[in-house]
Amino acid sequence: MSAILLQGAGAATSLSPFNSIDSSKLVAPSRSSLSVRSKRYIVAGSDGTNKSFGASSLVARRSEPLIPNAVATKADTAASSTSSKPGHELLLFEALQEGLEEEMDRDPHVCVMGEDVGHYGGSYKVTKGLADKFGDLRVLDTPICENAFTGMGIGAAMTGLRPVIEGMNMGFLLLAFNQISNNCGMLHYTSGGQFTIPVVIRGPGGVGRQLGAEHSQRLESYFQSIPGIQMVACSTPYNAKGLMKAAIRSENPVILFEHVLLYNLKETIPDEEYICNLEEAEMVRPGEHITILTYSRMRYHVMQAAKTLVNKGYDPEVIDIRSLKPFDLYTIGNSVKKTHRVLIVEECMRTGGIGASLTAAINENFHDYLDAPVMCLSSQDVPTPYAGTLEEWTVVQPAQIVTAVEQLCQ
Amino acid sequence: MPLHLRSSPSLKSTFLNILRQNLGFGSRSHVTRHIRQNLPHDPPLRGSQNPIRGFCNTMAEPETLSSFGQHEDASNHQVMDFPGGKVAFTPEIRFISESDKQRVPCYRVLDDNGQLITNSQFVQVSEEVAVKIYSDMVTLQIMDNIFYEAQRQGRLSFYATAIGEEAINIASAAALTPQDVIFPQYREPGVLLWRGFTLQEFANQCFGNKSDYGKGRQMPVHYGSNKLNYFTVSATIATQLPNAVGAAYSLKMDRKDACAVTYFGDGGTSEGDFHAALNFAAVMEAPVIFICRNNGWAISTPTSDQFRSDGVVVKGRAYGIRSIRVDGNDALAMYSAVHTAREMAIREQRPILIEALTYRVGHHSTSDDSTRYRSADEIEWWNKARNPLSRFRTWIESNGWWSDEAESDLRSRIKKEMLEALRVAEKTEKPNLKNMFSDVYDVPPSNLMEQELLVRQTVNSHPQDYPSDVPL
């Protein structure tokens, strides 16, 4: 019960962020349209009451201090948040592992497959210890062929298992595109609903620290058109664990995008079980002047820019869209109706990225509410250079975000 | 943050160690002496041009033992411990030939005339099973012919026949149990037929009416039935192979007394998925049977343009998979081979590869005219001299299980049933428009609901442009 969560917190400020849903209240992980679904769940409000998620409850806000650094590799950011709240502190990759382990404990059909996920524990240690605990059939090391083990996961899902397929790097999943598009996305539809494919495809993507062009790709651009799949991107240990669990429980194929540079983020997360809603965006910082939409690592660049902007007198509203397919146009729309200005900050390339689609969606749906054209800051249409200095400038920097906001808010 | 790229430094040094050992450095260098002896007529190579001699000069120190063992065996030839087992060295420079002198023999039990070959090994079938096998082959043949004609008459939009491959379809299905999961390519409707899919159900899918289990979303012949454990046909070539390995993995985990079976053509073996799936199945020790219908043609591409190996059966060994080549037009041999393969797959938890040699008598599909790239004589010969139905019929008749009367009774009954099924399917209503948007996800999300609304609005304002037979 959400109430118990609050009592356990013992503090005046609410522990649970905006979109947490008590998992015991879930009957079945079913998706429904945003407005219908929102009436079902009870969200712990920041004033200590339980209220239904409705049109007016957007004021509920995250009460933990916002993580100010662009890339939180230091532990100091967590210090302030651990003081008064219970829960345990862990790094993002550990949160993913915890979510995965809990789901594997809960449901014997959940299994993991990928390269080096077994005794090696995964390239980014997300599956560490799982092979020892669950055996090397349930945590399966595969030969190197992404199309084959993705296909394998799909076949296993059609026969009742719930595989979590790990791509060592999202870029390698380009090799699995055939299986993902043709089989994963389509077979539930073309079989007339006879076969479901509840797979989770996950892996790290995005620009890292000098990993080279091939290992710095943004696959969400390429996958976003595939009908039949859902895409989510995690950005904090809290939502990483929540999204992992929700994705595993979903009956649809879900692609969970992690980011290479966010694995060592530290945060305190609740001890109680929780999941995050797959189709909802996360309100990071409410504001009045401008809506900044972002996801994954760029969230931290945006928050860093937000500090500067606040000092300059602006009040940006920052939303981590989290759900890349479908977009949470409900949350986004409410924000646009309030601020009338939108800036999208993404890591995708300019052409055909998530930002491009989001710009189109916002223009189509909320044109009347905009006081300025939607601006989108993205990476350039170049393969990511290896040189550190160049690589840094392919990615949107906080200074650019500040300039863009100033421009939009003139 | 560690880099997790494919190469690793230790791999490179390991490789160098192997290279050094294979070239015999640090040990007696009879390698180099042997080579010089075997090249008597070539001009003596100068030291700088002979790469081995060059190496020999620069690496004079004896090699320290690496993690691999190295020792002398009784015959004074060195043997190396290497992952996978001991590897003997040889001082002869010998390449494995690209092909054996003789092709892999083909297992058959009934000769061209349907007579049982003496001393043949086969799994005995009862009269009931044999008659069902034959009847279903006839049914499949009639169904294919009638659907093909219906397409030519404009009643169906598309069709692909399995003419000539009836024995593979039916006899392999007969050797399996209903719990074995099937991953077909698209030329195996006979497996569904064997398991009880009715002619009406086939017709419903082809016409895409509201009784179709696929809800009218796919082309004809893309059948699927979860209750008969036959996975919906996905048109992409060979993508079902890794899916089958995944299903076998699932069965293995559940310790079920069942296996996964997947079908594909000779053309499908060129796809990457074929190689990867075989490799995976061998490594996972998954109980899956790979049945290749080597029917000679991939649309217009003959097997000589598809691969240069001795067919498909030899590829199994490359992946560590037990394989067999079978006469695909011999129903009894197919039955026996699949029956035996299934036992091995489940009992020993291993994959099996079966290459069934056959011929695609029909065109690739109704969009193809195969006389453009192959001679009508060739088609005629296979249809007459190697016909799987006539061979099996001779055998069951010789057992007293069949007769001319039974044949004509069966054919007229099936033909009538088939035409009736066509008639009913054609008249049955199409699925509702809402099925265009359902099942994309488990529950339609808001964007799809919006898009459906838009379509309906458009239909409302232009009803004359909307097909009259798709209910709203």
TrEMBL record, chain A:
Q: Where in the cell is it found?
A: Plastid, Chloroplast
What InterPro entries has UniProt attached to this entry?
Answer: Transketolase-like_Pyr-bd, Transketolase_C
Q: Which Pfam families match?
A: Transket_pyr, Transketolase_C
Output the Gene Ontology cellular-component terms: chloroplast
Please list the GO terms describing molecular function.
metal ion binding; pyruvate dehydrogenase (acetyl-transferring) activity
Sorted alphabetically, which PANTHER family does this protein's record hold?
PYRUVATE DEHYDROGENASE E1 COMPONENT BETA SUBUNIT, PYRUVATE DEHYDROGENASE E1 COMPONENT SUBUNIT BETA
Record NCBIfam families? PRK09212.1
What this chain does, per the entry, is described as: The pyruvate dehydrogenase complex catalyzes the overall conversion of pyruvate to acetyl-CoA and CO(2). It contains multiple copies of three enzymatic components: pyruvate dehydrogenase (E1), dihydrolipoamide acetyltransferase (E2) and lipoamide dehydrogenase (E3).
Assembly? Tetramer of 2 alpha and 2 beta subunits.
The protein's name: pyruvate dehydrogenase (acetyl-transferring)
Its source organism is Arabidopsis thaliana x Arabidopsis arenosa
TrEMBL record, chain B:
* GO process annotations (BP): branched-chain amino acid catabolic process
Stated EC number for the protein is 1.2.4.4
| Cofactor(s) the protein requires to work | thiamine diphosphate
List locations, semicolon-separated: Mitochondrion matrix
Q: What class of enzyme is it?
A: oxidoreductase
Q: Where are the transmembrane segments?
A: none
Keywords tagged on the record: Metal-binding, Mitochondrion, Oxidoreductase, Potassium, Transit peptide
| InterPro entries the UniProt entry points to | Alpha-ketoacid_DH_E1_comp, DH_E1
Catalytic activity, reaction form: N(6)-[(R)-lipoyl]-L-lysyl-[protein] + 3-methyl-2-oxobutanoate + H(+) = N(6)-[(R)-S(8)-2-methylpropanoyldihydrolipoyl]-L-lysyl-[protein] + CO2
Q: Where does the record place the Dehydrogenase E1 component domain?
A: 137-433
One Gene Ontology term, aspect cellular component: mitochondrial matrix
Q: Which Pfam families match?
A: E1_dh (PF00676)
Superkingdom to which the source organism belongs: Eukaryota
Q: Which residues form a coiled coil?
A: none
Sample GO molecular function, one term: metal ion binding
Family indicated by similarity: Belongs to the BCKDHA family.
Q: How does it assemble?
A: Heterotetramer of alpha and beta chains.
State the protein's name: 3-methyl-2-oxobutanoate dehydrogenase (2-methylpropanoyl-transferring)
